[in-house]
Design goal:
Length: about 200
């Protein structure tokens, strides 16, 4: 059976920690592939989310040249169906159900890869309990978060991985750009060039 990881996020912007963590999870679980899905219009992200086209392009620049990695625009397409003025909200459960209908249940197992911060916010997600019917949920630790804040009913159902603790975040990179601080080695060179060429995060 093929094992496919689903790694979603705003990727605003995607950075080196996303790459390192994805490679680590892929190796630990023996995944055949990881599909990165930039969120179309994430309901829990209120500020500073740049246009979905830019986030998709940066995700492709970051991930697509790595073996076993690919980028999917399934949520981008959905968010733009109602037009750029009022894009439809994108929810993980809807995306997972669509992917589950694409991949044969008998030959493909799906693993949803999230951070522990996402798991803490699980009660705010749309129909979080249903996710366990369609995929295994893999949780990565993150700096500043711990499992004591997670509902015990979720702890019993997830796969918790000990992944590298990396003090890099998209918000930090956005702030660095804003204050003209170097982002070398925090994003891949092509993403750095893309950010400045398109005057993002200023």
């Amino acid at each position: 059976m093929r094992k496919i990881g689903i790694f979603g996020g705003a990727f605003n912007p995607p950075h080196i920690a996303h790459l390192i963590l994805a490679l680590d999870v892929k190796k630990q679980l023996g995944l055949n592939k990881i599909i990165f899905i930039p969120a179309g219009n994430p309901p829990l992200k209120k500020n500073e989310v740049v246009d979905s086209r830019h986030r998709l392009n940066m995700a492709k620049l970051t991930f697509e040249n790595k073996r076993g990695f690919e980028v999917c625009d399934i949520e981008m397409k959905k968010s733009l169906q109602t037009g750029p003025e009022k894009p439809e909200k994108s929810y993980t459960i809807d995306t997972i159900i669509k992917l589950r209908n694409i991949f044969d249940t008998n030959s493909v197992k799906l693993y949803l890869i999230i951070g522990i911060d996402n798991l803490i916010d699980f009660p705010k997600w749309k129909e979080p309990e249903k996710l366990f019917n369609f995929c295994d949920i893999v949780v990565m630790n993150r700096p500043g978060y711990n499992s004591s804040k997670v509902s015990r009913k979720y702890i019993k159902k997830i796969i918790m991985l000990n992944t590298p603790i990396l003090g890099i975040s998209s918000s930090m990179i956005r702030n660095y750009v804003k204050i003209n601080k170097s982002i070398d080695f925090l994003v891949v060179p092509k993403v750095k060039k893309y950010i400045f060429s398109n005057n993002l995060y200023k």
